[in-house]
């Protein structure tokens, strides 16, 4: 029988801030920008009883938790500690599928002869992450990914939940639909209107009814609700896309004003590509207008790239395809997709491209060492501070 662990760090960004600054320990901490349009990137467990959560506006979060300490995100530091956590994972199994910087699936089926059964391995990982790094995480142990992920979330922080083989459906049955993967607010309304309240109700519903309620995903949802998930732990699969976006304190109304944040976002995306050893062939630019309308434009490049200049050039050309900029833009986002870790070989190497890629790798290394202020484009030095950044 397969054994899968889902490991999820506890309030990772906020916990890193409390680790590095002992004065923050025991206090409600919000990671994000303290501004009118800022959003909460992470909230410590001390802040959560007030109802504060990630992605909430900072204004609303501080209304609910006025004593919270707000700290700006330090993504290089989070990336550094994430790397150390994943090093611990790989000491117990090479089958590690990272979902984000702070969570992963581990297939430990082949590790049991060395380290013991799944619960023992999960406990060893928890202890090692805490003793070597100083952070806690919660783990779910089960026979498949879906059940393990749900289990890891039931006893946070610093929890360990084990679902015995054969007991998957019984474990899932009483849980509310909110725990179900890919069941969003609109789908929940439809399911509840049909009389379904729990994952067990979903498991007992006939296939035709679920297909009427959820479309083609209905059959998959039914199988998952019954505790059946054959998906393997996939090692090293590149993400489908990478991106970052920023909300501005005041709406921007000119192309020149928008090009600065787009350049900064292109630089951040290039850093992430270099960090993962990836190249991208599709660039997407997203704008959110002052009236909250969202528009996107996309371009497929002649060849895959991983440097700031190529991404920014594509994004700036896309910007010319948007209208009504003078009405005000509150957010821009740059993302890349069609990712590969093996770019096409070129019959005649592009020397300038190779130079740009070497520069991208060098500047990323300098930012990792000295922080985001260590090296940047001269045109960004006097740039305004954004209300909040988010990455995916």
List the helices and strands and how they pair.
Blueprint: E1 4-9, H1 12-20, E2 29-32, E3 40-43, H2 58-64, E4 69-71, H3 75-92, E5 96-100, E6 103-107, H4 112-115, H5 118-133, E7 137-142, H6 145-152, E8 160-162, H7 168-172, H8 185-193, H9 199-204, H10 207-214, H11 218-225, E9 241-252, H12 255-276, E10 279-289, E11 294-305, H13 308-319, E12 329-340, H14 351-370, E13 388-391
Parallel strand pairs: 2-4, 7-8
Antiparallel strand pairs: 1-6, 1-7, 2-3, 5-6, 9-12, 9-13, 10-11, 10-12
Helix pairs in contact: 3-5, 10-11, 12-13, 12-14
CATH superfamily of the domain at 241-391: DNA polymerase, Y-family, little finger domain
Structural class: alpha+beta
Mean pLDDT score: 87
How many beta-strand runs?
13
Provide the CATH top-level class of the domain at 241-391. Answer: Alpha Beta
Q: Cα-atom Rg, whole angstroms? A: 23 Å
Question: Low-confidence spans: pLDDT under 50, at least 5 residues?
Answer: 345-351, 370-375, 381-385
Task: Write down the CATH topology of the domain at 241-391.
Answer: Dna Ligase, domain 1
| Helix-strand topology string | EHEEHEHEEHHEHEHHHHHEHEEHEHE
The major sheet is characterized as: 5 strands, mixed
Helical content band:
25-40%
Q: Helical element count?
A: 14
The strands making up the biggest β-sheet line up spatially as 5-6-1-7-8
Beta content comes to 15-25%
Tell me the span between the first and last alpha carbons: 34 Å
Which CATH architecture of the domain at 241-391 is right?
2-Layer Sandwich
What's the overall geometry? globular
């Amino acid at each position: 029988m397969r054994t899968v662990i889902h490991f999820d760090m506890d309030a990772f960004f906020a916990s890193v801030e409390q680790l590095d600054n002992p004065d923050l320990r025991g206090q409600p901490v919000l990671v994000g920008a303290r501004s009118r349009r800022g959003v909460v990137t992470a909230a410590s467990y001390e802040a959560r009883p007030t109802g504060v959560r990630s992605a909430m506006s900072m204004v609303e979060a501080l209304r609910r938790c006025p004593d919270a300490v707000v700290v700006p995100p330090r993504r290089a530091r989070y990336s550094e500690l994430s790397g150390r956590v994943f090093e611990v994972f790989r000491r117990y199994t090479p089958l590690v599928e990272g979902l984000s910087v702070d969570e992963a699936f581990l297939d430990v089926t082949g590790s049991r002869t060395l380290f013991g059964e799944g619960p023992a391995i999960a406990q060893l990982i928890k202890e090692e992450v805490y003793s070597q790094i100083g952070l806690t995480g919660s783990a779910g142990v089960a026979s498949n990914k879906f059940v393990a992920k749900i289990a890891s979330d039931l006893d946070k922080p610093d929890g360990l939940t084990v679902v015995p083989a054969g007991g998957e459906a019984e474990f899932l049955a009483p849980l509310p639909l909110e725990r179900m993967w890919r069941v969003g607010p609109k789908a929940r309304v439809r399911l509840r209107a049909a009389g379904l309240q729990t994952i067990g109700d979903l498991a007992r519903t006939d296939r035709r009814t679920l297909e009427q309620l959820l479309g083609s995903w209905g059959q998959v949802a039914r199988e998952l609700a019954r505790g059946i998930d054959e998906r393997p732990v996939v090692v090293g699969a590149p993400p489908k896309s990478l991106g970052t976006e920023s909300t501005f304190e005041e709406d921007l109304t000119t192309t020149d004003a928008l090009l600065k944040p787009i350049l900064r976002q292109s630089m951040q995306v290039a850093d992430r590509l270099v960090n993962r050893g990836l190249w991208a062939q599709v660039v997407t630019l997203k704008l959110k207008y002052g009236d909250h309308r969202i528009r996107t434009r996309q371009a497929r490049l002649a060849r895959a790239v991983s440097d700031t200049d190529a991404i920014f050039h594509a994004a700036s050309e896309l910007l010319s395809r948007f209208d009504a900029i003078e009405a005000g833009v509150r957010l821009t986002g740059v993302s890349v997709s069609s990712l590969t870790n093996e770019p096409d070989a070129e019959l005649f190497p592009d020397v300038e491209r190779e130079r740009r890629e070497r520069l991208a790798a060098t500047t990323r290394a300098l930012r990792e060492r000295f922080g985001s202020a260590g090296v940047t484009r001269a045109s960004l030095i006097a740039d305004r501070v954004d209300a909040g950044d988010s990455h995916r």
